[in-house]
Amino acid sequence: MSAPIPKAKLAEIVRDVVRRTPVRDIHTHLYDPAFGPLLLWGIDELLVYHYLIAESFRYFDFPYEKFWAASKAQQANWIWQKLFIEHSPISEACRGILTTLNRLGLDVKKRDLPSLRKWFAGQNPSDYTTRCMELAGVESVCMTNSPFDEIERPIWEKGFARDGRFEAGLRIDPILVDWKNAAKTLAKWGYKVAATLNAKSIAEVRRFLEDWTRRIDPRYLMVSLTPDFRFPAKDDCARLISEAVIPHCREHGLPFALMLGVKRQVNPELRLAGDGEGRSDLQALQNLCAAYPENKFLVTVLSRENQHELCVLARKFRNLHIFGCWWFTNVPELINEMTRLRLELIGLSVTPQHSDARVVDQIIYKWDHSRAIIANALAAKYEDLAATGWQMTRAEIERDVKGLFGGEFQRFCGR
Ligand code: FIX
Ligand code: ZN
């Protein structure tokens, strides 16, 4: 354990440590099994993942409505046909399905969708979730919990026995990006808010945040924002952030998670698959970090062009923690680039990856693929150190990897 590792052995040991170290998946769209049908799993859900829907529409020649009117199984058949049979499944999202099936012990070379369906039909969601978490080496996942979701809200309100592996994340997009509509909904729920923000409405938003923080015990509050997000600004979003979200988070010691750079509904015909990305103005983030040193900001950005300046900001503000390779950056080429950039600019005080999984089986491939890249990036760094005469022990490597896979997140959050 404490013996120095020879340079020639470093890569092998790093890979082994990275493979064995359990990860805290700090942002997903998965649910505690108590949420029943909200927890998605199985081959059809894997195939109709919105990443694959976007890719298949590049080949489909029928109208969008025909796809949306079809059953899930039919949609999955079409996607399978176009992306796996008529073309080789080389995109990251396609390859991911094959990695998952392979790790589950299924034979991908048969290309037999009906028999895959049969196998999945024999699984039970709760045991299967445990199996996926074990195969992925994931010890806990953070959910995306929206009080504005009609199916989810009543489940929280009624209460249920929480599965400790599933942590909550309080999602507040409707309040920050569409105040006028959110105000109507909050009013319906008994909060005394007006469409035109005033001091009473702000106080009521704080009451709403209090209620939901008490109810779900979240790890953080979270929002995805468009590239035109500015702070400070004379708009509802900036005012709600400074007068409701920031004081709430500070009082409860909760980070505010910002996912920056999504352009919602670039092509609405594609529905959930219709969002795009754009470069954000990180001056807004700099202003937030500087104005509220007592607050913590967890941040990931969608545009490749923002990655370097985000790392530089993290060097300036210790209340900023960078996480994950989000969505369109979750491809090996960019995971590799971003991970190396982060290690070189901010060392180990980062959470290099989250899965953003929407279907539980996806955690297997998302973590398999990322672990391989993170291990290579880390091994290269240790080899550079070894070239100077510096020596590492296995225990030190384990400590570092533990930090990257959830320890640093926990330290940042203070819990
Ligand atoms: O805003 C988000 O949390 C995004 O991750 C999602 O909206 C997006 O649809 C997604 O699944 C990306 O991976
Ligand atoms: Zn997400």
Please give a structural write-up:
- By secondary structure, this protein is of the alpha/beta class.
- It is built from 18 helices and 9 strands.
- The strands form 2 sheets. It has a 7-stranded parallel β-sheet, sandwiched between helices. Strands 6-7 form a two-stranded antiparallel ribbon.
- The model has no long low-confidence stretch (mean pLDDT 98).
- Bound molecules: D-fructuronic acid and zinc ion (ZN).
- Zinc ion is lined by residues 27, 29, 144, 356.
SS element count, helices: 18
Radius of gyration: 22 Å
> What would you call the quaternary organization?
single chain
Query: What is the structural class?
Result: alpha/beta
Low-confidence region ranges: none
Give the strand tally. Answer: 9
Helix content: 40-55%
Main β sheet profile: 7 strands, parallel
In short:
This protein is α/β, with parallel strands linked by helices.
List the helices and strands and how they pair.
Layout: H1 7-20, E1 23-25, H2 43-47, H3 50-56, H4 64-69, H5 72-85, H6 92-103, H7 113-121, H8 125-136, E2 138-142, H9 152-158, E3 166-171, H10 173-177, H11 179-188, H12 199-216, E4 218-225, H13 236-252, E5 256-260, E6 262-263, E7 276-277, H14 283-291, E8 297-301, H15 307-316, E9 320-322, H16 332-346, H17 362-386, H18 394-413
Parallel strand pairs: 1-2, 2-3, 3-4, 4-5, 5-8, 8-9
Antiparallel strand pairs: 6-7
